[in-house]
Amino acid sequence: MANILIIDDDHDVCETIESLGTRLGHHCESAHTLAQGMERLEQGGVDVVFLDIRLPDGNGLEHLTTVKSMPDDPEVIILTGKGDADGAELAIQGGVWDYLLKPSPVKEITLTLGRAIKYRDEKRSRNKHVALNLENVVGKSQAMRSCFDLMAQASKSDSNVLITGETGTGKELFARTIHENSVRRTGEFVVVDCASLTENLVESTLFGHKKGAFTGADSNRIGLVKLADQGTLFLDEVGEMPLSLQKAFLRVLQERRFRPVGEAREVQSNFRLISATNRSLEQLVEQKRFRSDILFRLKTIQIRLPSLRERREDIRPLALHFVEQLCARYDTGIKGFGSEFFSTLEAYDWPGNVRELANVLERAFVSAGAEHTLYAMHLPQELRIQVAKAQIVERKHAASPPTEEPVSVESSQRTERVSRTGFPAGETGESIIRRAIPEGPDLPSLKEFKVLAEKQYLMALMDRYEKDIKTILELSGLSRSHFYALLKKHDIRG
User: Fold this and answer.
1) Which domain holds residue 240?
2) Do 205 and 58 belong together in one domain?
3) Are strands 48-52 and 75-80 parallel, antiparallel or unpaired?
4) Average per-residue pLDDT in the chain?
5) Which residue from 227, 167, 221, 220 is spatially nearest to 192, judged by alpha carbons?
6) pLDDT tens-digit profile of 251-291?
7) 215 phi-psi bin (left φ>0, alpha ψ -120 to 50, beta other)
8) Cis previous bond, 306, omega within 30
9) Which of the pair, 439 or 362, is modelled with greater confidence?
10) How many domains does the chain have?
């Protein structure tokens, strides 16, 4: 028996799903507002949530991360009375089980509910037997918990894995952790930095060479692919792999066989492949800079690591972890923290992600010297300046009453005039719409136009407000999670 919660302001929908669930032997409850639903979820014990998008006190999609982070991590089935392709994409990216349009046939609801419960039971069964060694991997947020679930799947299999994420999110650490939790843990973990491969030595580096194969080949050399035999081959920044090598590497992926430079016979290597990139390989494929047949083989299992600004609740435990390591390395006593230390860290946007956080903490640690407490003043000046500017802008916005007249909005670089329409100076809805229509005799379809206009609007916001996220969120009316999801969708650098 499963515990099912329906969060929907439509009483008829609630009664229908309750009646259906009860007949199937499950316990069902209903909540008609987000507040009521959240209150029930906080009590725990919920297995499946039917979540409406349009509720009297908020948007269900905007609270999806909160719902998924509740006790027991319930499976979520989205309900909506209006078809929304972008909403469906955001919902699936957020980890929902399915996306149903109201009214849905009873048969469809029954099948979706049954599959969600079966999946949940199987996931619980798997988790009982998977005890991951997560040394040096820190994260308690829902975003990271989802990554850990995929890590557990990858560790139990021998399939190819593609890890994506911004620079500094910990892709290599994640790859090493998968290797150390796999059956290949006794083999080598061999790193290939694809960005540093040179055209003239790339095949020799990967596949090795025979003595005398070329000028300077004074002895036989084993390539990195062979070194990974019985272990893991990690291709870091795989999007930088030269196009000339990709065709040769495709056969290596298929056959696990290759020929060293100057050698007549083929060599075999039984390796497990993990790749990582901070670029969109799909976009590189469209630009003819990456082979689609290689991409399909790389991403049997795909893990997207969130940026640090997408999991701010992990900043404090990460900081504690890094400072503990620094204390051990420098052989000092345990250091305490000032009252504003963590709040300053959490107010920063971390473009360099976890790698930047580690560097900033080491700088603060060195700056503190023999002091027993780390204060905000020990943090780098440039970080504190950015945080202070952002806080000043936020306070000015909060103090400014709404008005029909243009009001001044300060950013870190310049002051602009912005009207209550939310469009920057010199920018109107009509100008964005006209720019979104591509030149040519034929107009795009309405669906294509909406996508183009949405992208133009986001680019206008990012350009005009110079990535001042707080201002952008206030003017656009978007939640932070929705905004970043849209940037990812349109491949716009945040």
Assistant:
1) 142-306
2) no
3) parallel
4) 83
5) 227
6) 898 889 988 888 888 899 999 999 999 999 999 999 999 99
7) beta
8) no
9) 362
10) 4
